[in-house]
Each structure stands twice: as C-alpha cells, then as structure tokens.
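Hi R.,

Here's the chain you asked about this morning:
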Amino acid sequence: MNYTTRLAELGITLPKAAAPVASYVPVVVHGGMAYVSGQIAFVDGKVMTGRLGDDVSLEGGQTAARACGLMILAQLQAAGLLDQVERVVKLGAFVSSTPEFTDHPKVANGASDLMEQVFGGAGQHARAAVGVAALPLGAAVEVDAIVALKA
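And the predicted structure, written out as tokens:
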C-alpha cells in the first residue's frame, strides 16, 4: 500500500516535520524498526498547551493526540519511511493531567484511531497511556512510536 496516496484519499495533509527541541534525532532506524521520538501537538504552527482535567477538555486532548500522530507520520515521511511502514508496533502516549484525571486511554485514542485510519489493520498496535505532571514546552500531549519497516 502507498500510504502517501492513502493520506490524500483521506484528505489528510501532514504538517511540516518539527525540528528537535533538544539533543536527539526525530527518527532512528535499527534492525528493521523505526523509533520515532516523542512528538508534541502542533496546530496551526502552535503547540497545544495545557493540562487535562484543568484547562483542556477530553475532546481537546484527543485532538492534541491526533496532532501528535500526524507529526509522527510527518517525521516518517521526512525520513523517507512512510511508504515503507509494515506495521505500527507500539505507541506511547503521555498526557499532562491533574492527579484526578483518569481518561488517559481515551485521550490516546486520538493518535491510535489515526494510525488505524491510515494503515488499516497494520495500524493496530500495543500502547501505553500515562499521565504526567508536565511535558516539554507545556504541551498537553506527547506521543512516540515504534514502527516495523518492510524488508
């Protein structure tokens, strides 16, 4: 499957791949796997900030997680790997939240649902969704990925 074509069929335009904000690279390929560094949510070029359970709604968190997923796809595209994806293996979702907020899995669905929409069954993956006190740049959500590549 050509996933660049699939994105066009879905009417999805990927954002420009964000530059790292510290000492790391966006994607590392090793042993047939692509490890995508944690991506934060950008909408209209601005970081989606805030905390779930405080000033960000569940729906806002899901939107942020989807935006993180779009940035993961953008990083894969920038690395020339998007059409080499065999399977999304695992996503890790980090949700900036109050101690009382417990819907982290529902927030992470924003990214998970995107992966299945784009990659079909190959987009179904293992996942962790955890709450954290703070994220880089005040981001509401951060998501990283492990992706198997075609041989």
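The mean pLDDT is 97.

Let me know if you need anything else.
M.
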